Structures are given as C-alpha cells and as structure tokens.
Amino acid sequence: MEPEKAIRRKWRTVRLLTFTSILAFAAIAVLLFSFYLYMKIIGPPPLSIPQSNLYYADDGSIIGESNSGQKRYWVSLDDISPTTIDAIIAIEDRTFYSHHGFDIKRIGGAVLANAKAMKKVQGASTITQQYARNLFLTLDKTWKRKISEAFYAIRLEINYDKDEILEGYLNTISYGHGAYGIEAASQYYFGKSAKDLSLAEGAMLSGIPKGPGIFSPLISFEKAKNRQLLILDAMKETGVISNEQADAAAKEKLIFIGKHPHHRAESAPYFYDAVKKELLTKVGLDERIVTLGGLKVFTTLDPKQQEIAESVIADTISDSSDIQVGFAAMDPRSGFVTAMVGGRDYDESSFNRATQAIRQPGSTIKPLLYYAALERGFTPSTLLRSEATTFKYNDNNSEYTPQNFNNQYANREITMAQALAVSDNMYAVKTHLFLGQEVLVDTMKNFGITTDIAQVPSLALGSSGVKVMELLNAYSMLANGGDKVEPVFIQKVEDYRGKVVYEATQNHEQLLKPQLAFVMSHMMTGMFDTKLNGYATVTGASIAPHMNRLYAGKSGSTNSDSWMAGYTPALAATVWTGYDKGSEITLTADKLYAKNIWSQFMERAIEGEPEDIHTFKPPVGVEPIPIDPVTGKIATQSCPTFRLIYFANGTEPKEICHH
C-alpha cells in the first residue's frame, strides 16, 4: 500500500513540475512576445543625427556647408567600397549578420578574459550596440547606460534590417579630427569618396574608431599601421581577402591629405544666406534641419557669373569710397537667381542690400509706368510737352513741381521713346497723372513689387522705395515677354538619403501682353542709341561705346541712390549703389558706378554664349517702323535721321514726317 502512495505522490509532483514548467515557459514566451510587441508599437528609435548640409551651385560645385563642428555626410552602403565594409565587420563584429544585437559567445569570452586579468582587457560590443551608443547615449560607464544601450540595440534590431544598421553605424562613428562617418573620414584622410577607397585605405580607416586619438595615422602612423595589419589578418581569417591581397595592401603606400573639403563659402556669402532663409520660409523646413539635417541643397548660382560680379564690383568701386552696393542677376526665362552681391564686405556687414534694403528706384520705375501707358493707348510716338511745370492734384489743389536733370527741358513736345531715352521727368509725371495715380500702383504690384507703395505724383519718378530683387524680377517679366516669374534660389533639396523633399516650380502665367512687353523692351534699348539725343543726351551714352550687344535698360538716380537695370532675353541684372545711411552722392565718379558695374557684368557674363538666346525676337503682332525721333512720325527722305521703332499692329503712326 505504501509504495502505491509514494508512486502517486511522485506522479503528482512530476505533473505539478511539468505544469509549472509549462506555465513558466508560457509566461516567459508571453513576456518576450509582449516585449517584442511593445518594441514594435513604440517603433524605431528616432535617428536624430547631426549631419552637414551641403550647398551646390548649378554646375555641381559646392559653395557652402553648415555643420556643428562635426563633418558628417551620409552615404548608402552602395557608395562605400565593399572591402571597407568587409574590414569593419572583420575587426568589429564578425557575426554581425547572424546575431540579434548581442554576441553571447563574445560576451562570455570577454567576461572570462576580464576576470582573469582583473581589469577590462576585452570588449564585446556588437556593431548594433556601438551604433546605439553613437546615436542616443553618453559615454559614461554606468549600469544605467549599459541597460539603455541594450534597450536601444534591441529596438534597432527589431525595427531595422542589418544593412540599415550597418549603414547607420558607418555614417556615425568618429574617425577623429572632426570627421564623423566613413565619407567624411575618406574625404579628410584621402581626399576621395568612400566608394573609391582601396583595400589598404579602407583597412587603415577601419582601425581608427577604436581610438581616434591613438590610431589616427596623422597622430601615430606606427600605431595606425600596426592596426591596419591586424585588420588585414582578420580579413584573411574571415576569408574575404586572399593572402596575396593582404600582402599587396600592406605594402601599398598611402598618401594622407589631412584636410576637410568644404568650408564656408568664400564666394557668394550673401547668396548663401538668402538660400538658408528660403529653406526656412519657402521650403518650410525647421531651423535644426536647415543647420544639421544632412541636406543637399541644389541652388541656382552660376559660379562664373558670381565671380564676374564680385570682380567687377571690386575693380570698379574705389577702395577709398564708402559707397555700398546691391547687385543681383537672374535668368528671366526661369527666374533662377544666378549671381548676388549684397555688399562690398560680408565680414564687415552681412546686411544684404540686394534682398533687404529698400531704396528709392528713381527713373528705373518709368518702364513700368510706360508699359501701363501702352496698355491704355499710348505708343512710342505719343507726344507730350517737356517744360517746367507745377502740377495741381487732388481736390484740395495740392501742388507738385518736379524738375528735370540740370533743369533742362525741351520746351516742346517729345515722344515717349525719346522721353524714356533721355529720362524726361515731365513726360513721366504727366503720364502718371493722366492715367490716374492708382494705375502705377496697381501696375507695380502686378510686376511683383510687394514693398509698400505710396500713391503720390512723385511715384512716377521712383519716390517709393523698392528692393533690388523686386526691380530685377519686374524687369525679368518684360524680358521674357510678360510671363510671371518669381526669384528662385533653390532648384531642389534632397534629404540625407537622397530623397527629393522639395523641387522648385513656377506657376507660369501670362501677366503682360507679349506685343507690348516687346515694344517696351525695344524702347528701353533707346537709352544707348544716340539717334534719340535731343535737348539732353541719352542716359546710356557713357557706356554704349563699350557694349557689343543690344540691351534693354534703364538707369535711375536720386540724391542718395544710383541704379542701373537691364536685360537680354536670357539674362537680367540690377545694380544699386549708394550710402547705407542715405547720404547724398556728390562725387561724379560715385554716380557712375552703377552703370559701369552693370555694363561690364553683362558684357563679360554673356561673352562666348550663343548669340541667339540673347537676341530680342519680335512676337507676332508687332511691326518695325522707321520713325523720326523728333516728331514721332514716319521718316522719309526729307527726315534722314530715323530709328526703327516697334509698334503693336494697328497702333503705328500714319503721318509722314516733313521737315
């Protein structure tokens, strides 16, 4: 009887142990599954890695970089030489592709080795653990950090595949000298991309992360070389290279550069600032991404034009002068801003006079006024009297008495074409008041000028301030035949993985009549044509002899501002010169700076380019007529001086000139 009871007790104990074990295993399984599920629910850890932003000109050259002192350029595994990847795995984590974040065998071996030596002589961190440490953690040696490191390592393994983890690791580890990631290291040490590293170079770099202050070849070549040989041996052991390859790599002579490739833009610093502002305002990125997001920003800058602009300005304005400058150039067809100078010395003043300064444009506003007049029935031959005049306006008979330059007047009727060429102020104010003061205000807004506009009689003479970029944009609309454009600084933006996050587009809209835009442009070529001389000389006479192409342009001046703006169909440029505090420009040489800068820039920028793209081509609906510049009538043999002037069909003069 007693043995039967013992047997029953034994089976009960076995069943209890079995049931308890099953429950324990089930509980562990549930806990593990819950932990896995929790890791999946909270998702991948945010990879908040400060990376250098790179800014490219339109020819692919780098014009600037922003970083926090850590040079880091993210590249994919495909853009890293395979032997460099093999070297890293061989020396850092041979079982990387088979473990799940932790190498238990290495951990056990490290514990025994450290216990035997009574100090830490061997580490067991996997690539995943090191990546977690680089991304999220401090380097303090506490249990809390080790637990956090393990937690992040598990999150990485669950939410990313092995190639993504390896790519991240290779892009975040420190290689010393401010270089973070394999691409920055490759550029710094060898002056080449990571995809072009040789076996010897990759093995050398792979030894540095263990201790950049010890194993950098620029600090101790002997220690770096010994570690390179150790890595080559490890690669032989793992079978990724042969003995012959290892021997050849060990003997390869390496040439070290020791220089980071990208610095703050020495050229175009004002343009560079404008681009960063556009990233915030137009692209809509936050400030941290704009500074350290690993972006590739492809801009519209033309390095050749930028160099010409900077050179011309430096050569033209006397070193002893305090005159400042605002300059910008644009392709009227696309709106691409190709060059910009916001001042004579960025280090002295980063204030951008091309995008920020609001100055009175003077007579450069007249083409906008006369375009509005063309839309309302005026033609290049429309006659108005040029004489000293006091204008009365508004219901309270307010008075306004403008003056011509040097108080010179024709004291007769002159044509719009001649009035524009010699910049007659009386013609402009009469036109302005005849049309109604609100017309010019609306026209300026239609041409893209957003600065507040004062509706006054003197608006016709440019009394209401504008920005250089605004006037350039307005002239570009005339140059392209009336198509709405806006200044574009950024062609596209890619994130650190090469995904396009922004690409520029233009909402092409025909705002001006192509025929009238062309008539206006052709009238603006008259400032360089001495056939339009009258009681005064055409305003472009001083620079016309130095110009080899036909340009449309207009100069302007106030007591404290000097302007020159103009274009071909493929290039527009605007220059402002003056004193920052608005002091009067008194020296004759200072008054000529804007014209000289503009003409020299245009000539040099266009030199060697196809003639066709810079040639004004009349659209359908306009006709050239030989016009007597004095009377505005059709020229005949009795009026031998004539200029071909374009008219919209049906608006050409009918009367014949008889002197």
Automatic annotation (TrEMBL):
Record key words, sorted: Carboxypeptidase, Cell membrane, Cell shape, Cell wall biogenesis/degradation, Glycosyltransferase, Hydrolase, Membrane, Multifunctional enzyme, Peptidoglycan synthesis, Protease, Transferase, Transmembrane, Transmembrane helix
Q: Which InterPro entries match?
A: Beta-lactam/transpept-like, Glyco_trans_51, Glycosyltr_51/Transpeptidase, Lysozyme-like_dom_sf, PBP_transglycosylase, PCN-bd_Tpept
- Record localization: Cell membrane
A GO CC term assigned to this protein in UniProt: outer membrane-bounded periplasmic space
Q: Which part of the chain is the Penicillin-binding protein transpeptidase domain?
A: 327-602
Positions of the Glycosyl transferase family domain: 60-236
GO MF annotation list: penicillin binding; peptidoglycan glycosyltransferase activity; serine-type D-Ala-D-Ala carboxypeptidase activity
The organism sits in which domain of life? Bacteria
Q: What parts of the sequence cross the membrane? A: 16-39
Which BP terms in the Gene Ontology apply to this protein? cell wall organization; peptidoglycan biosynthetic process; proteolysis; regulation of cell shape
Family according to the record: In the N-terminal section; belongs to the glycosyltransferase 51 family. In the C-terminal section; belongs to the transpeptidase family.
Q: What is this protein called?
A: Penicillin-binding protein, 1A family
